[in-house]
Design a protein that fits this description.
The complex is a heterodimer of chains A (about 350) and B (about 260). With about 350 residues, chain A is an alpha+beta fold. Chain A contains 11 helices and 10 strands. In chain A, the strands form 3 sheets. A 4-stranded mixed beta sheet of chain A has the order 1-4-5-8, covered by helices on one side. Chain A has a 4-stranded antiparallel beta sheet with strand order 2-3-7-6, with no helix packed on it. By secondary structure, chain B is an alpha/beta fold. Chain B is built from 6 helices and 11 strands. The termini of chain B are far apart. In chain B, strands 9-8-7-10-6-1-4-5-11 form a 9-stranded mixed beta sheet, sandwiched between helices. Chain B has a two-stranded antiparallel ribbon with strand order 2-3. Chains A and B meet through helix 1 of A and helix 5 of B.
Amino acid sequence: MDFAFSEEQEMLRASARELMNDRYPPERVAAIADGGGFDREEWPAIAGLGWIGISVPEEQGGAGLGFLEELVIVEELGRALYPGPFLSTVVLGLEALRLGRAEELISDILSGKRIATVGWAGEDGRFDVDPAPKVSWDDERLSGVKLFVPDIGVSDLLVIVGGTAQGAGLWTVDRDAEGVTWRELPTVDGTRRQGEVTLREARATALHIDGPASLERLRDRALAALAAEAVGLGSRAIELALDHTRTREQFGKPIGAFQAVAHQLAQAFLEVETARSLCYWAGWAVAEGTPEASTAAAAAKARAAEAAVAACERAIQTHGGIGFTWEHPLHRYYKRALGIAATFGWGDSLRARVAADLLDPP
Amino acid sequence: MNIVVLVKYIPNPEGTPEMGPDHRLKREGVEGALDPGDEHSVEAALQLAGSDGEVTLVTMGPEAAVGALRRGLSMGGHKGVHVLDDSLKGADVLVTARVLAAVVKRQAGFDLVLAGVESTDGYTGTLPMAVAELLDLPNVTFARKVEVADGTLKVERQTEAGYDEVECPLPAVVTVTAGANEPRYPTLKGIMQAKQKPMDTLSVSDLGLSAEDVKATQEVMGLEPVAAKEAGEVIEDPEEAPGRVVEFLTKAKVI
């Protein structure tokens, strides 16, 4: 059995890396993160490359590839700390609209005309597939509060995941509609801003979904994608540390020659590579819709986020003083890793789910 | 319009080049890419060809050189020709030009041949002219803008002072500068289609060339690193400095 990526998948990876190197080098990402945020005028170019509809079938206007190809791009975006709304619009928003069969909105997303994000967690901060009944839906009007909504500042369409007395639901709301207020939250990762949305009898459209099963698919995509981002950025942090340890000399030798430094990076490499294996397994399982998809996605995100956080910590340590400066890109990697760890469930809750799945298979 | 673009696969332009025991650049077993300079000629060709034209990419090189063709095809090129022959290892400019000219001749009804100004690895900058000479075609170099109107080629030719407006009949060989355009990124569709596009692999004999035609007439005898630049002379005495500077410039025949 051949587990390697195909030539096309490798070309896709190379192409994504090239675009990121050219358009979003670290100094540009820093300027976007510290400045006004991502400019939505840059989004149609991503649509032009065909990335938005990468895993959407051709007959629905997409490229007809799968989630694994989407994951290849996401890993590269993570590696570059791409500050655009790919996770929110492509991984989450577009899939949510597809689950709810919102055809017109789907084509607006595919063309790059509209940017969607998903408001999932409520004030409890949980991303449950059977959300507690905290939103109210009455007479085509939706009320509730959503936290940690990614890329809220550049999105114009909100897909709301929530629970009512009737069960789990999915709605679309225009971000700038009457009854909607939003603000960006002062979260740690400036390369992916998160917001709070408050809906007070806002006009919304309910999408028909198959209850928790649809939300489970959406969550598993998000978990696998977050794992891929973590693997990408963790690998990059290790590369930065390796570059430094090969050139920085102490006691007449490059510092990488000292065991105390080398072992740290070897451990980081080991953790990120095992996370990579889990991540590709999760990507495959989600793409194929296999029964272990949810377990794989939870395992991948738990492991990858923690591996990335640890890799960044070790890389910063290895860099010495310069690793602590604002000018060095490492702190942004660290913050994105922390952001990934905190979203869609922390490692311990995901591991609890993996354990439950293994002990009592679904 | 049918356009032939001469492209080259070069060792990773961002890496440090490795030299082989024959004092030549190591091309096999190293990571490589389509020469960034060639991306501009591919882009120019795609723009000129429009929706009804055809862009044929031609390269000569080891097996991995097919990567350069695939890249051009993923940008939108229509077909590729790869000349792959062990006897071409170490080919000099003239041999390469003979091979590429022979490929171009086989492309029935071509209107234009485009190439980069010079390769990013070898920098000879003479290949396109040699190809033009062998094909007995006019050659316009350093194009910063290429247009075709009423069967005539109009080129803005970059010069040190500005640019010349040059016109010439077709077919012709034109070298395109990096200032001519912004090469497109391959789209997802382009990447997925690249492998399905027609690709010819030809040997020297397929091109009707003899062993004599492709025998390099040059050999690299040795290789030495460029001597490190020595530190300049610092004159701290303001009284002495002007005289010494004048002396230095006089000696250098600048004044």
